[in-house]
Amino acid sequence: MTSRLHAALDMLHRSRVPINRMRRLQYGSWRRVSCRSGAGWYVGSVIVNETNFRYFEPAPRRNMSAGIQASLQF
Description:
There is one protein chain. The protein is mainly beta. It has one domain (2-57). The chain has no helices and six strands. The chain has strands spanning 2-14, 17-18, 26-27, 30-42, 45-46, 56-57. The strands form three sheets. A two-stranded antiparallel sheet has the order 1-4. Strands 2-3 form a two-stranded antiparallel sheet. Strands 5-6 form a two-stranded antiparallel sheet. Strand 2 and strand 3 (26-27) form a beta hairpin. The radius of gyration is 24 Å and the shape is rod-shaped. The model has no long low-confidence stretch (mean pLDDT 77).
């Protein structure tokens, strides 16, 4: 059995955005910080009646992620 810990930290920063053509009015900058962590165990198969106490066989590592981003501009 293989145990794997993972952690991630990311930050998104957006600078000020002008609101009018003269650039006198501006929407302020903002930041978003997010973090995540977890653990995973990968077991490929289990050996029944194993005499050497090696009941678990490790599975091949797999990784998958997905994301969605949407924006609306005027």
